[in-house]
Specification:
This protein is α+β, with helices and mostly antiparallel strands. It folds into 2 domains: 2-182, no CATH class; 282-386, Leucine-rich Repeat Variant (Alpha Horseshoe). It contains 16 helices and 11 strands. The protein has a 4-stranded antiparallel beta sheet with strand order 1-2-7-4, with helices on both faces. It has a 3-stranded mixed beta sheet with strand order 10-3-11. Strands 5-6 form a two-stranded antiparallel ribbon. The protein is elongated and about 75 Å long. The termini are far apart. Bound molecules: cobalamin and iron/sulfur cluster (2 copies). The site of cobalamin has 37 residues, from helix 2, helix 5, strand 7 and helix 7. Cobalamin binds at residues 41-42, 45-46, 49, 58, 61, 104, 106, 141-142, 146-150, 160, 163-166, 173, 175-177, 215, 217, 219, 222, 224-225, 228-229, 248-250, 252.
């Protein structure tokens, strides 16, 4: 790399060709480039989304639109944004025969943040090597304030579906978007085109009605938000609608005709079911996790750490209640009596309220519970049994 610092800028067309070759060799299924200019249209949509309260309490989504829509705010010297797509599709869910807690496909394997970051870092090194220049770059996936879908669409990776996902004509929508912001001038690709036509399946089938308009998802209603990003209670009226989803939700992608024909198995072994938590959680096991250490030991290195121990147990309580899972009753009772988190105790009470024969335990808990919200849940649960 000695002469790398002294060489002048590489030919943009040649640099683009080399980038494509290296990115494909690194296992990325989709490669596209856009300029580092602000993502104006996406920014406008984000502004309206924020104003409507649809960002819920995700602090990082309340940041100024000017920040989230401008790659140069992340790297001053940025000239191009390289958008990369990698299919995570691990296959379809087997039938939920044993009353498991369903996990969205993107989270079956290892934590994608780590896995992708490593490959992005290597890609940058290889690019420098091949072009013989130093490339100032910032690589990330789902980790910094930037409208990644808007950048990906403008880079030609795909079009915006009514479910708000970027859909690729080659791989459907089960893919992660990764970005490499670089100080290289690269010829931009044409923005992605495509259409949902007259299809509205995702909007019709979303269990909570979270897709308020084409491409507009109200996070406050989305099961993915409620089970992953949400740190508080799951609103009572939404709990039954979560059905058996304990982490994320894939319904608006499962029903999409593009995924029925285009989704193909991920080539990255890290995203396979065998590499992580897989398609279902054993609810009875998860309900027994009482300490952060046990939680880390079970889920470290997978995306399932995101909601934290209390968040994941909250979700498992709700799903056990929805499935009226008899085998989970002893675990739910232990959650109600012993868990340090009021969030867990309250959702355990709700679940027990939906299952016959748990009134005595609920009454006993009512007598000793000190947390007001939790006592309210116990009273509500007892009311369901009357
Ligand atoms: C916050 C967030 C969420 C929130 C809110 C989702 C939402 N739809 O807004 C919650 C927690 C609900 C969520 C859920 C999921 N997420 Co998420 N999430 C994000 C995050 C961090 C920001 C998204 C955002 O800015 N939302 C605000 C809205 C306003 O913007 P947007 O979603 O980008 O939507 C844009 C386009 O859809 C466009 N648009 C829509 N329609 C139209 C129509 C026209 C004509 C035009 C011009 C534009 C347009 O306008 C919007 C603004 O740019 C991104 C990573 C990132 N930094 O971008 C990942 C990201 C969007 N999530 C991702 C994934 C995988 C998911 C889930 C599938 C996970 C799961 N299985 O549970 C679900 C999908 C739910 C859904 N239908 O969106 C991927 C999506 C990949 C893809 N192919 O699209 C991303 C890009 C992460 C990544 N790097 O791979 N997510
Ligand atoms: S992820 Fe699930 S809850 Fe969220 S918009 Fe899609 S179908 Fe609706
Ligand atoms: S299900 Fe239909 S409407 Fe929804 S994103 Fe797919 S093609 Fe578009």
């Amino acid at each position: 790399m000695a002469d790398a610092k002294t060489k002048s800028s590489p030919d943009p067309v040649e640099a683009r060709r080399v980038l494509e070759e290296l990115a494909r060799a690194a296992g990325f299924d989709l490669v596209g480039v856009t300029s580092a200019e602000p993502l104006r249209e996406g920014g406008e949509r984000l502004r309206k989304w924020q104003e409507a309260g649809m960002a819920a309490d995700m602090g990082y989504m309340h940041r100024p639109v000017e920040l989230l829509s401008n790659p140069k705010k992340l790297q001053k010297s940025a000239r191009s944004v390289v958008s990369l797509g990698v299919s995570y599709y691990p296959g379809d869910h087997p039938e939920n025969a044993d009353g498991g807690g369903r996990v969205a496909r993107y989270a079956w394997g290892r934590d994608y943040h780590e896995v992708i970051k490593e490959r992005l870092f290597r890609l940058r090194e290889e690019l420098q090597e091949a072009l013989g220049v130093r490339v100032k770059a910032r690589g990330f996936t789902d980790a910094v304030p930037l409208l990644e879908r808007s950048a990906a669409q403008r880079s030609g990776l795909g079009f915006f579906g009514r479910n708000s996902c970027v859909i690729s004509g080659d791989v459907g929508s089960y893919f992660f978007i990764a970005d490499l912001i670089v100080d290289l001038a690269l010829p931009p690709d044409e923005p992605g085109t495509g259409t949902c036509g007259r299809c509205t399946r995702c909007m019709d089938r979303c269990p909570t009605g979270a897709i308020k308009a084409p491409g507009v998802v109200d996070a406050r209603l989305c099961i993915s938000y409620l089970t992953i990003e949400n740190r508080g209670e799951i609103p009572r009226e939404l709990r039954p609608l979560i059905s058996d989803w304990t982490f994320g939700c894939d319904i608006c992608q499962e029903v999409c005709p593009y995924n029925k024909t285009k989704a193909s198995q991920s080539r990255w072994p890290e995203f396979s079911a065998a590499a992580g938590a897989g398609p279902y959680l054993d609810l009875t096991q998860v309900l027994e996790i009482r300490s952060e250490e046990e939680f880390e030991a079970r889920f470290a290195g997978t995306p399932l750490t995101r909601p934290g121990r209390a968040g994941l147990l909250r979700n498992c309580c709700v799903v056990a209640g929805n499935l009226k899972l008899r085998e989970a009753v002893p675990g739910l009772i232990r959650c109600l009596r012993q868990d340090d988190s009021a969030l867990v105790r309250g959702h355990a009470a709700w679940a027990l309220g939906g299952i016959e024969g748990c009134e005595a335990e609920l009454r006993e808990a009512e007598a000793i519970e000190e947390d007001d919200w939790c006592r309210g849940e116990i009273v509500f649960a007892l009311g369901r049994r009357e």
